[in-house]
Amino acid sequence: MRNSFNTAGFSEVVHEIRNDPAQAAFLYTAEAQSSPYRGLSARIGPALFGTVKSARRFSVELRDVSDAPGADGPLPMHLALTGIASCALTTLVGGGSAQSVVFESADMDIAWDGGAVASRIDVGGVPDDATVAELVDQVERFSPNYTTLTRPVPVALRHGPGAAPASAGTAEGAPAAGRPAACQVRWISGTQLTSAPLGPEPGEELRVDAPKQLTGVDWGPNPQEYLLMGLAADVASHLGRLARELTGRAVTWRVAVRGTEDVGGLLQADPSAVVQLQDMECAVAEPAGLSGTELEKVVAAAWAASEVRYLIEAAPAVRLTSHRVESCPV
């Protein structure tokens, strides 16, 4: 154990993957619901780690994208940014722990302004700037969610009963700028982190953790699950808003998202492995009272309006800086 990070446990995962590459395929799922009566919510679904199934129960009540400023709860973009930053910090601390680096602190501020992402990592306890630079370089190369942000990742879109996934090339260019969002993710210990929104709007801390199968303690959803919940909730929120605007109907929408991660790339167990998320798919359930041309119109408009979808598919401008925090004298 170093930084309360179970390096031996991760070494066992690497060993298993090298013996059986199929164990590197991790499947994550998330669902969101937009209801005219109960608002916007998201939850994770069962995950599959190689051949091991993990069924955990975590959910988040969210602020709808159409809510007035000052409403309680995180925005869908907060979930997505939390997933990106927590993955980056977990990669940083895990990589440093493997190199015998002992951290006093590790924080990441991350912000979306409607067209670009700016982020900054502050690291405490690391002896020199060169070590910080090396660790941040590992984040940029091996963090699955961060590389998903910086490389275009297509998301297949499916809607209607029995519909096959189709290419999601329905939206070109950046969506109309929505509400800016920012949060600070703070490393606590091991694979446990917290995320809090930055700015004047209220919001409770979100808990992030790896599942028990990956040396965590199931304190909260993991980074990939936060990113998927953010996508599902963002699409569901826009579906609810645009259905009212385009058809005059307030209906309940359910959105399911899935994606896979080849952890052989993250753990450097397989140099040829793709690091970013793969096989991304978003499925929109047909709501009662809306079908045919109206359904097509609302789904296409919501997909085009989703800023989280744009984050994943378009690889927007990204800026990452880092800073070494001097140790406090005893």
From TrEMBL:
Q: Which InterPro entries match?
A: KH_dom-like_a/b (IPR015946), OsmC/Ohr_hydroprdx_reductase (IPR052924), OsmC/Ohrsf (IPR036102)
Q: Which SUPFAM superfamilies match?
A: OsmC-like (SSF82784)
Q: What is this protein called?
A: OsmC family protein
